[in-house]
Amino acid sequence: xxxxxxNLSRSGLxxxxxxxxxxxxxxxxxxxMVAWLLCTSPVGFDxxxxxxxxxxxxxxxxxxxxxxxxxAWVGMWTISGDYLNERALGKKALIFRFLFQALCGIxxxxxxxxxxxxLWGL
Length: 122
Known about the structure:
Helix content: over 70%
Order of helices and strands: HHHHH
Distance between the termini: 43 Å
Number of helices: 5
Shape: elongated
Radius of gyration: 18 Å
Strand content: under 5%
């Protein structure tokens, strides 16, 4: 039995929606960045700095960074629920799943905080 104590929400539908919305944000950011890189020639430090000095780009990047963390968390929680179970790991499955989810959560949180520091120069 898999409990949803450590998932992003209390609803599988909500987690499904988070995956779809964050995937859309990540895809939009990726398409934008690829288009910007193709249209901006040559790309040097000054061009890169000019792009990220704009508040809208910082906000867009922050939204993408938060989306990446949420998308990864839901995905890793789902993987741990599917594969770190009693059938695969025996009686210690709950411990392994908790440790895996804790490690993933700490990692995602650290990456988001680190990204915010880089993005906003804190």
